[in-house]
Amino acid sequence: MRWLRELDDRKLSPHTGWTRDHWAALADHLLLSARRHASPSHARISFPGEPGGYGPDVDGLEGFARTFLAAGFRVAGEGGRDPHGHLEWYARGLAAGTDPGSPERWVRLDEHDQAKVEAASIALVLHLTRPWLWDRLDDGVRERVVAYLAPAIGSWYPPINWVWFQIVVEQFLASVGGPCSPADIEAGLALTDGFAREQGWYADGDKRAYDHYVGWALHFYPLLWTEMAAGDPAADTRRPAYLSRLERFLRDAVHLVGADGSPLIQGRSLTYRFAAAAPFWAGARAGVGSPGLLRRAASGIVRHFAERGAPDDDGLLTLGWHGPWRPIAQSYSGTGSPYWAAKGLYGLALPADHPVWTAVEEPLPVEEGDFQLAIRSPGWLVSGTRADGVVRVVNHGTDHALPGDQLSDSPLYARLGYSTATSPVLAGPHAADPLDQSVTLLDPSGRPSHRTGFDALLADRLPTGTALGASRWRAHWVEPGLDAPDHGSGRAGAVTPGPTLTVVSALRGPWEVRLVQVAAPCTSPLRIGGWPVSSASDSLIVPGPGLDLADVTRAEDATPLSPETFIPWCGTTAAAEPGRWYVAGVHLGPAASPAPEIGWTGTTARITWPDGVTDTLDLPALLR
Question: Among 277, 403, 432, 569, which has the highest number of CB atoms less than 10 A from its own CB?
Answer without folding.
Answer: 277
